Amino acid sequence: LRESSPQRTSPAGPASGCCSGELEGQRCPEEGGGGRGQPSSCPPCCFLLQQATGLSSPSSNEGKQPAVQVPVSVAMMSPQMITPQQMQQILSPPQLQALLQQQQAIMLQQVTLDPAELDPFPLEHPLGNKQLAFQQQLLQMQQLQQQHLLNLQRQGLVSLPPGQGTVPLQTLPQAVCPSDLQQLWKEVTAAQPVEDSIKQEGLDLTTNTSNSTSFSAAKVSPPISHHPLPNGQSTMHTPRRDSSSHEETPGSHPLYGHGECKWPGCETLCEDLGQFVKHLNTEHALDDRSTAQCRVQMQVVQQLEIQLAKESERLQAMMAHLHMRPSEPKPFSQPLNLVSSATLSKSTSDTFPDGLPHPPTSATAPITPLRQGPSVISSSTLHNMGPIRRRNSEKFCTPISSELAQNHEFYKNADVRPPFTYASLIRQAILETPDRQLTLNEIYNWFTRMFAYFRRNTATWKNAVRHNLSLHKCFVRVENVKGAVWTVDEHEYQKRRPPKMTGSPTLVKNMISGLGYGALNASYQAALAESSFPLLNSPTMINTSSASGMLHVGHDDVSSTVEQVNSNGSFPPRSHPVHVKEEPAEAEDDSRPVSLMATTNQNVTIPDDRDLEEELPVEDLS
DNA sequence: GTTATTGTAAACAAGC
DNA sequence: CGCTTGTTTACAATAA
Known about the structure:
By secondary structure, this protein is mostly helical. It contains 28 helices and four strands. It is globular.
């Protein structure tokens, strides 16, 4: 019966027309154009999927595979034959993990130890393509592995702190040094090994860099790639503005410098710009070779961005440790438009008419889900790509507070629906405040502040918020002197929650079979902590879970940990459930100075949070 | 198949 | 009158 109605039936007659249009745009990222229940049509998840499959064009590598002495495995098969998701279904998590690691190690060995691969003249070397295949396979394997880790997180079994996800990928720049990359370029230039893959994936670079920079998403899900955020941003990060600004400069070209072509692997000498342009149009025209080179460059950029994100995080941790304030903004990894959630939540918790922060303005900050997303977000985020109903709601070991602590920057920037129920989010918003109470408008502000997703379609989700507030007994409306505030009856909230893992032997058993004890222990403790403590999880819990033996956790999780310290440490949880605020606490902006350091870096780039308190240009959808 | 949960839409009322 | 806030109902989708 459900299949018979391709569209979501709306009971309302006349209103459904206009709303459906808006709704369509809203749900497009989740349901895609292929209809409900088709994961392949969900752009974000497919993006990750394609990261693991399409980037390296395994089909083309398949033909070159005999040159590589890699054991036959499903991982090396064409994605047309077995997708990573299918592979994950076929293999158990430890099997998959081991498989990926094994193949990664083998390929690394091949790439790094084979002297022939270091041939400085790869143009004539028959193994050039092989190395390209290696590196692409490496990328694929690492992305697969990363996705697998995310999958583990989605199951709530692994607590992946920020930066952790980048660790496997970071081995790549070490294995593929810049010289290798240059060599790689020459190889691509010499041959056209990825010709098939390009045709296969339909990479279209005709629209210049805008498409090329977001090709990963474009080839997977044109809707989302062409679906700008309200502020005009693309959901994918686009360094286009940089290049375009270069191109607008007369007499210069981003690919031309010091009298030579800076096209990767080219270095052709050009006397002047005109000659260079001619050279560019002739030697680097739109063809398979150029697109292949562009693809490789994308991968390089992606790797560097991941590296940058990690290094930035490390810098923040270092500066936090040294009690320093970052001396300079981070224009790349830290969009200027972002606001410290903790700081803003403090400053806006009670004092209106502030509250609504600016949405990221396209003029100043390209959104960077790629940069922060894959390396930071836990895989529960991936739920948004699936059916709408797949909300986390903290049922399985993924505490919303820790999830948000780890990924709040991602949610703040990426137009991705948070995998939590409205009730969970509302509760989180309320509990984040020192008084454990918020007005409705403040809850709205929290939503828009914390999630880019909620910066549009305000009518829809605000209605849902109000609906949830009224519907759930756990939300208690308390009349205040200045109006009404909403509080959380934690007892009621806990009551409505389903049983935890402790009461689900089957789940525990599955987890034991699927993961090591460490992860189980971590998630178990996390679930216990989440269920036991009504308020935010303690950093101890986070550290404990992070210290699981399965995944290494270094100091990279300091940001999330410190942030939780801020959330809890500065404002110890109150034992009494509700404390009706009698008057607004307006002078709390500086009550948590550490938060400026502890939350992510963009805080420091914001001179004043109140600058972001204008009304959002929401409902931009036409 | 049933039930509970959740999201969405909408009607409605009260207050400002 | 318009907006916000709050309540309620209805329905669909999903998971248990």
